[in-house]
Amino acid sequence: MTEDTTRRTDWTIVISYYLIWLGSSLLAGKTAYLSSYTMAGLDTIILIAIFWRSKELKRPIDINLLKGIGWGLVAWGAVLLAMLSIKALTNNTVGSSNTGLILHMMRKQWLYTVYIVLVAPLLEEIVFRQCLYRRIDTWMTKHWPGMLPKAQFIAAALVVALFFAAMHGDTSLWEYALISLLLQGLYQRYGDLRVSMAAHLVFNLTTLIVLTCL
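User: That's the sequence. What structure does it adopt?
Assistant: Structure tokens below.
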């Protein structure tokens, strides 16, 4: 795939995701349920189309996917520890405003669980960790050619983390930003998007299981 083709594909995916998110956000002012279901349905269609055409995501499963699962559990444990520490120090409960709505939607429609656990994390890795990061990294390489590789990675990863956190429209922005940085680091280290996908999927699944059992 040429650079021009990669650039067009990346921006098509990022812009399509943003337009779906924007449309769902506008619709949420009238009905949160219809907004959530619309976004889930359209995101699922995009994800299926991407997997259908991607050779990278169809490669045989290897040991790195198990590492991704392990890192997903580590991320969940780290976030839980941070939340408990903040609660102990400030006597305030730190939570996600988005979680309550998600749990309520899952109880009303079980298929929504598939979206939260499977579709959302896989698509978000493609959009943020791969497409958006690649565009920002390429832009930095072109305009700031003298930047050290590690500094460039950190700068690009931070920008992606800010977008990732902001587009979740949640009160726990720091939590989403930290998760984004960890997942970006996994993709950078292993060079396999499926590793960060596995970590993200396990993080979502573990979080929802624990919250459902509480």
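The mean pLDDT is 86.
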